[in-house]
Amino acid sequence: MIAEESERNARIPQAATRWLDAALALERERIAANLHDGPLQSITALRWRLEGLEKLLRRDPAAAVEELARIRPLAENQVAVLRGFLAELRREQQDRRPLGESLSRLRESFEREGGPRVELAVASEAWCGSSERNAEIVCLVREALTNVRKHARATRARVLVSRQGAVLTVVVEDDGRGFPLPGAFTLAELEALDAGPKTIRWRVKNGGGELEIDSKAGQGAVVSIKMPVWGS
Q1: Does 82 share its domain with 157?
Q2: What is the average pLDDT score of the chain?
Q3: 70 and 158 assigned to the same domain
Q4: pLDDT at 118 (0 to 100)
Q5: Is the pTM of this model over 0.70?
Q6: 222: which strand partners?
Q7: pLDDT at residue 131 greater than cutoff 80
Q8: Mutual orientation of helices 2-35 and 198-206 as an angle, nearest 10°?
Q9: Which residues, listed in sequence order, are joined to residue 169 by a DSSP beta bridge?
């Protein structure tokens, strides 16, 4: 009996290590994808503009000066975007603000970076009980909004956060084109089909939560997440 308990206790750190490794891998994948889809593409376009400027300089110096004046604000904007990206990462790591305030900052950043207008409603009782869970909820909302910006072609989105007992509910809606797989699906069904946003599925599953996606082609999608609250 003692041997079994010792073996069980020995497995706990191993499971935690595997979970942490998987979480870090997903976070690296997310950061790489965001850099590729945002700053990297813009910097690549800027490089082509600079190569064109070099050719224009030989042919028409006056026109090259005008082109340089147009390029300079683009470069300055990319510096600002990268600084904002890094600042957002630091805020997620150190965030101790109430959930509503954290999500409000996320909405401002999302709209500033070109996302559609977001309506945000966070119930006063919707608190997480721990800064770690707060950060996890913010990450889930950010992932859902990132999918809206990248894939949905939506003109608006809505984020609703409420709490009942020890369960926090997050609903993210948009009026875009919907997911490739129309219909309503639970987390178990999405896992079986290997469909839907992978990072959200992983975070919800490993956080002991529930996920449902209801998508209608050309009419938008609703992502509903229920997560148990830590430290209640």
Answers
A1: no
A2: 80
A3: no
A4: 94
A5: no
A6: 173, 214
A7: no
A8: 150
A9: 162, 226
